[in-house]
Amino acid sequence: MNTVKTVRELRAAVARARAEGKRIGFVPTMGNLHSGHVALVEKAGQRADFVVASIFVNPLQFGPNEDLATYPRTLAADQEKLVAAGCHLLFTPDVDEMYPQGMVEQSRVSVPGVSLGLCGGSRPGHFDGVATVVTKLFNMVQPDLAVFGEKDFQQLAVIRALVRDLNIPTQIIGEPTVRGEDGLALSSRNGYLTPEQRAQAPALYRTLNQLAERLRAGERDFAAIEADGKRALESAGFRPDYLEIREAGSLHQAAAGDSQLIILGAAFIGTTRLIDNLSVDL
Ligand code: PAF
Q1: Which of 27, 136, 166, 194 has the highest CB neighbour count under 10 A?
Q2: Which helix (H) or strand (E) holds 243?
Q3: How many whole angstroms separate alpha carbon 263 and alpha carbon 83?
Q4: Half-sphere exposure of 46 toward its Cβ, with a 13 Å CA cutoff?
Q5: Which atom of ligand 1 is nearest to the CA of 130?
Q6: What structural domains and CATH numbers belong to the chain?
Q7: Whole-number average pLDDT of the chain
Q8: How far is the CA of 223 from the centre of ligand 1 (A)?
Q9: What atom in ligand 1 is closest to the CA of residue 29?
Q10: Pairing mode, if any, of strands 260-269 and 272-281?
């Protein structure tokens, strides 16, 4: 696996692969890779001949009081995992390479609709930062396909919408969430948890499952189900940010006749914010 830091080197390496007739798969990440990321790279390898990954902790998608400074940077370990997963090219730009005009002067991509509420409500500007960096990366790599985790379900919806709306010829593939044995969704932010918090954390997924059971049993008082879920999270030591039942395709508020629902939750344990979701097909 070759690691490059500049757009020029990236474009040259991708152009060589294309000239050999290879289909390009892409996995953008912020690094500190775990088995969930490895699954994305492996999926890209099944669907494409040449797999590009990027590691860039994107300042544009962090709020002023968020964890940009402390976000784990583990390049050497990440490179080993990428090699083992079959990645061919790694792009690790620095901030000046990605935003040479500075971030204030940077043109932005904004995706209305699906960006509103949920994480978009709690983290103002977050999805503009994600949409902007992903659009830039797509323009740099010009992949045939790109793979994203379903754990960040709203992010996946934002990326699907921007590709559709901006006519970007990249197929977007969602990959199911990878979980620990106790159900906790793998996340780079799990590393912030103390052992005691780590033991509490699976309650988020357990709560989503309890709510899903009630939906499957026919309950449709969504507000009451959400309120009970928040209380369950509080009892388990979380400070809930949101817990909402939405229609899975549009992310609109759920309605009684919907057949594909998704329960999305975000909650703090201490200062660590965890997110998760669970689809419910009725
Ligand atoms: O999901 C992530 O790791 C990031 O939001 C992404 C898609 C790499 C954009 O910075």
Answers
A1: 27
A2: strand 239-247
A3: 35
A4: 8
A5: 9
A6: 2-175 (3.40.50.620), 188-277 (3.30.1300.10)
A7: 98
A8: 31
A9: 8
A10: antiparallel
Classify the C-alpha dihedral 239-242-245-247 as positive or negative. negative
Residues sharing a CB contact under 8 Å with residue 65, sequence separation 6 or more, in sequence order: none
pLDDT score at 116: 95
The span from the CA of 245 to the CA of 248, in Å, is: 9
Nearest CA to ligand 1 atom 8: 29
260 exposure class (CB count in 10 Å sphere: 0-12, 13-18, 19+): middle
CA torsion 260-185-131-86 (nearest 10°) is -110
157-170 pLDDT tens trace: 999 999 999 999 99
Of 264, 6, 5, 15, give the one whose Cα is nearest residue 117.
Answer: 264
In three-state secondary structure terms, 199 is helix
Q: Is the pTM of this model over 0.85?
A: yes
Q: What percent of the chain has pLDDT over 70?
A: 100
37 belongs to the catalytic site: yes
